[in-house]
Amino acid sequence: VYLLDHTAEVEVSNCHDCRIFIGPVDGPAIFDSCSNCRIAVACQQFQAKNCTNIDFELYCATQPSLHSSHSITLSPWGSSYAGVEDHFEGAHLDPRSNQWNKVYDASAADDAASADANFALCDAPSESWVIPAFEVAPPPGAQGNPFGKSSPAANGNGHGAAAGNGGGSGIPDSFLEDGEGRASPPAPSAAQTPVGRAWEAELQARLDRQAKEEGEKKVQLQEAAASYLDQFYQERETQKNARKAAARSASEAKGPMEAGAEGDNEWERTLSLIDFNASPLLGTDLSRFKAVLMSCKKRGSAAPASS
Length: 307
Prior knowledge:
The chain has 307 residues and is of the alpha/beta class. The chain is built from seven helices and eleven strands. The protein has helices at residues 84-90, 106-110, 115-118, 194-252, 256-259, 266-272, 287-299, and strands at 2-3, 10-13, 19-32, 35-49, 52-60, 65-67, 70-76, 104-105, 119-121, 152-154, 160-162. Strands 1, 2, 3, 4, 5, 6, 7, 8 and 9 form a nine-stranded parallel sheet that branches. Strands 10-11 form a two-stranded antiparallel ribbon. Strand 10 (152-154) and strand 11 form a beta hairpin.
C-alpha cells in the first residue's frame, strides 16, 4: 500500500504480512494489532499498540510510543518520492528534526526486564523502498478530475480544506498558473527520478524472467504432449493388431458354415457353404441337387435353365 500524499491523521488496524508506505501525516499515526509488516511513515505523533514483528522506518516530530508491543524494529526515515518535500511542508514537519529513537515503551514501566526485548533501534533501514511510478494528477477542474480549484476537499480528520492550500487533493495553486497567468508545467513524475528508473528496470527484469520461465514451461508441455500422443498411437496400433489376430484365429477355428464363403469363383464359394456330411433335412434326398452343383463347378458355367 502506498499513500503518497500528506494527510491529517492515519490509523492502521489488523494488518498482517503487509508492506505499507505512508507519506507525511499532520497528526497522529496509530498502528493497532498488526504483525509481520514493513511500514514507512512520517508523522507528528506515533503510536504502536498490540503489534508484533514490525519493521518501522520512522519520522516522528515527537516521542514515539509503544504499548503492549514486541519484536519492533525502528530505523530513521530515509525514503523519497516525487513531491515529498512539498508534502512534508504541507504536514508542517521539519525533516531535520526526527525524534525516531526517543522511544517511550509503556510496557517497560511495568516490566523493566522486557524493555530491551520489546524493540530495537537501527541506524539505517534494512532495505530501501522502491516507490512505483504513478502518473501526475491532472490540474483541478480538468476533465476527469473530481477536485475543483476552489472546492473544499475533506482531509484526514473530516474537516474541509481548500484545494489551493494543499489540503485534500494535495495540488497547490502554483501548479495551475504562474505569475503571468500561464499554466505551469507538471512536476516530474516518479519515473523520471533515479528511484523510479530503478523500479522500472527491476520490473522489466522481473517480466523478462517471467516470460523466459513461461517459454520454458511451454516447451516442456509441448514435449510432454508429443510424447503422450506417440505413446497413445503406439498403444492403439498394438491393440488393433491384437484384435485382428484374435479375429483371425477365431475365424480359422470355425467350421465351413461359420467361417464364410471361400474359393476363387462363385461356385467354389457356393460349395464351400454346403456341408455335404449333414444328414438329409426331413429325409429329403439332395443327391441330385448336389450332382448339379458339382457339374456346374466342373464346367465353370451357369446351370441349365431347364432339366
